């Protein structure tokens, strides 16, 4: 069923809004997934806070072209065949969903990603993207790094105090 001109305009506006509001955008090929696999993929996306929708390439490209403060040009070559738009808050969430799903299926194939003004093109970038650390993971790493020296100093002070009081040194 063909879309009317008004339906296309509405879809382009909607896609433009999604692209404008998102910092993490993935394009994937999910063509050939049967209905059971498609449903499983949608469930996996939902659990990982990833929005998934199949889009028309021409409409997506028009929406991309309308956003002046973002450059999606490197992704235009990926807009062939079946395209699923995956949007998330966490940089690595869509890549982790794809990676996990690929353990039992050949699809989805990563066509490209746009994350905070950086473009990644090709399925060979999947591992790199999946290994990205989210903001929360980076903060946890920094806290762990800061905590370690403090714990060492406190342990040494405790050992020194115990030694001065004639007690056996505490385990570090």
Give your account of this protein's structure.
- It comes from Weeksella virosa (strain ATCC 43766 / DSM 16922 / JCM 21250 / CCUG 30538 / CDC 9751 / IAM 14551 / NBRC 16016 / NCTC 11634 / CL345/78).
- The protein has helices spanning 5-21, 35-47, 57-65, 93-101, 126-130, 135-164, and strands spanning 24-29, 50-55, 83-88, 109-115, 118-121.
- The protein folds into 2 domains: 5-132, Ribosomal protein L10, N-terminal RNA-binding domain (Alpha-Beta Plaits), CATH 3.30.70.1730; 133-171.
- It has 172 residues and is an alpha+beta fold.
- The mean pLDDT is 89.
SSE topology sketch:
Elements: H1 5-21, E1 24-29, H2 35-47, E2 50-55, H3 57-65, E3 83-88, H4 93-101, E4 109-115, E5 118-121, H5 126-130, H6 135-164
Helix pairs in contact: 1-3
The spatial strand order of the largest sheet comes to 2-3-1-4-5
Total DSSP E strands: 5
First-to-last CA distance: 71 Å
Annotation field: number of helices? 6
Q: If classified by CATH, what would the architecture of the largest domain be?
A: 2-Layer Sandwich
Could you name the key traits of this structure?
2 domains, alpha+beta, 5-stranded antiparallel beta sheet, 6 helices, elongated, ribosomal protein, single chain, Ribosomal_uL10-like_sf, Alpha-Beta Plaits, 172 residues
Short description:
This is Large ribosomal subunit protein uL10. The chain has 172 residues and is an alpha+beta fold. It has 2 domains: 5-132, Alpha-Beta Plaits (2-Layer Sandwich), CATH 3.30.70.1730; 133-171.
């Amino acid at each position: 069923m063909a879309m009317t001109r008004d339906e296309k305009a509405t879809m382009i506006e909607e896609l433009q809004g999604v692209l404008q509001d998102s910092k993490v955008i993935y394009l994937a090929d999910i063509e050939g997934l049967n209905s059971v696999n498609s449903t499983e993929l949608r469930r996996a996306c939902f659990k990982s806070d990833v929005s998934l929708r199949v889009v028309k390439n021409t409409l997506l490209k028009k929406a991309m072209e309308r956003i002046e403060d973002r450059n999606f040009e490197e992704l235009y070559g990926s807009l062939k065949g079946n395209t699923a738009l995956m949007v998330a808050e966490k940089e690595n969430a869509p890549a982790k969903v794809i990676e996990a799903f690929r353990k039992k299926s050949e699809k989805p194939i990563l066509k490209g990603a746009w994350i905070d003004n950086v473009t990644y093109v090709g399925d060979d970038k999947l591992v790199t993207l999946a290994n990205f650390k989210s903001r929360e993971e980076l903060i946890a790493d920094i806290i762990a790094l800061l905590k370690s020296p403090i714990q060492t100093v406190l342990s040494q002070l405790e050992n020194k105090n115990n030694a001065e009081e004639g007690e056996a040194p505490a385990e570090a």
